[in-house]
TrEMBL record:
Gene3D superfamilies: 3.40.50.360, Ribonuclease Z/Hydroxyacylglutathione hydrolase-like. SUPFAM superfamilies: Flavoproteins (SSF52218), Metallo-hydrolase/oxidoreductase (SSF56281). This is Flavorubredoxin. Keywords: Electron transport, Transport. Pfam families: Flavodoxin_1 (PF00258), ODP (PF19583). One of its GO terms (molecular function) is oxidoreductase activity, acting on NAD(P)H. Residues 255-395 form the Flavodoxin-like domain.
Length: 399
């Protein structure tokens, strides 16, 4: 059975929701599900914008057939070749063999690499090119690394719809809703949106900034991303979030404490610090056990908050592995501009105390606080002063 929504006059959402997938990209848990958005315009020529993941391909084809009725599919614009959007290109060609595919040079290179045959039936476009479908004109905006090198956004200059590819997307299934004003975005989608952006696109902040600059010159009425709600009101809200995330500026003053603890002693030291921070007036604190929280959640809150505290045991003369994974992921994602406090535990050789600052030194603009805390096996009276000094220096650095 088809399941479509009208976005605006003659434009339809023909995507699908996936609540079965456990790990997005086989890495990131998505208990909230995900939507794969595809859009279909009925103009003098009919235009499909992107396809969907294989998991919802049958539903998608049914949707496309329903909206098109007896009409042929004339164009298929491919903004992004990652298989969560491009997997069904072959199915579309199978059902509509005369469709002309629109993409850029890299789009077609990747299409071939993924095994799709377009048989010369394509139009290659580059940044700034336009194509008319009769009543609508599409402007192509290259958006390399948002989130792959071939990625582009497409702007319908006639109705102000920006097809933004992965940008402005989020984890979370739509559940019948489509528009941002049909959901409580802050309550339902802000946390998944932040986790989606920071982990999937977070590394490419400068490229996202470039896209935001190009977008600021357009009169955008709708943002149609490839995942999550379509934005038709309050566009500045999500654009402001993207400004912050892509410039690595924290959204809030606050502390994420991430600890790695084998027997609870490092955890107890982290708890001690958390209590001191609250007693000194900083209540915006989240605490995570790195061993049991997927790193994507840690990364999302690290982008959100201004301060990080790492509390790590030493393990194999190294940083405790889950804390190390967190640090390495942070580095890979280009995270920067944070103030960091360090608590280290070592029963005989607290090597983590040396290795954590070394890793942080490889990242940009990380302010590592001088007042580190070193505990031997467990926190004791003798550690109280240095723990209090660490708490004090975190508070001071927020002023
Ligand atoms: Fe949703 Fe980069 O694919």
């Amino acid at each position: 059975m088809y399941n479509v929504r009208e976005v605006t006059k003659d434009l339809y959402w023909v995507g699908g929701n996936d609540r079965r997938l456990t790990l997005f990209e086989n890495i990131h848990p998505i208990p909230e599900g995900i939507s794969y958005n595809s859009y279909l315009l009925l103009d003098e020529k009919t235009v499909l914008l992107d396809t969907v993941d294989w998991s919802v391909c049958n539903k998608f084809i049914e949707n496309v057939k329903y909206v098109l009725g007896d009409r042929p599919l004339d164009y298929m614009i491919i903004n992004h070749m990652e298989p969560d959007h491009a997997a069904c290109i072959g199915e579309v060609i199978f059902h509509y063999p005369d469709v002309k595919i629109i993409g850029n040079k890299k789009t077609f290179t990747f299409m071939e690499q993924f095994g799709f045959k377009v048989n010369g039936n394509y139009i290659e476009v580059k940044d700034g090119d336009t194509i008319s479908s009769g009543g609508h004109e599409f402007l192509f905006i290259s958006a390399p690394m948002v989130h792959w090198p071939e990625t582009m956004a497409t702007f319908d200059t006639t109705n102000g719809v920006l097809f933004s590819a992965d940008a402005f997307g989020t984890f979370g299934s739509l559940d019948g809703r489509l528009f941002n004003d049909e959901v409580d975005f802050e309550r339902e989608f802000l946390v998944p949106a932040r986790r989606y952006y920071t982990n999937i696109v977070g590394k490419y902040g400068p490229q996202v900034q470039t896209l935001l600059k190009k977008a600021s010159e357009l009169d955008i009425k709708y943002i149609c991303p490839l995942h999550g709600p379509v934005w038709r009101t309050n566009l500045d809200y999500i654009i402001d979030k993207y400004e912050k995330w892509s410039s690595y500026e924290p959204e809030e003053k606050g502390v994420i404490i991430v600890y790695g603890s084998m027997y609870g002693n490092t955890e107890a030291a982290a708890e001690d610090l958390a209590r001191r921070l609250v007693e000194k007036g900083m209540t915006n604190i989240v605490m995570y056990d790195a061993s049991k929280t997927h790193v994507s959640y840690l990364i999302a809150d690290t982008f959100k908050l201004s301060h990080i505290v790492l509390a790590s045991s030493t393990y194999n003369l190294n940083i405790y592995p889950p804390v190390r994974e967190y640090l390495l992921t942070m580095k890979e994602l280009n995270l920067q501009k944070r103030t960091v406090g360090i608590i280290v535990n070592g029963t005989w050789a607290p090597r983590a105390g040396q290795l954590i600052p070394e890793l942080l030194a490889e990242m940009k603009d990380m302010n590592v606080l001088e007042n580190k805390v070193l505990i031997k096996s467990s926190m004791k009276e003798e550690n109280i002063d240095e723990m209090d000094a660490l708490a004090e220096s975190i508070i001071e650095s927020m002023k």
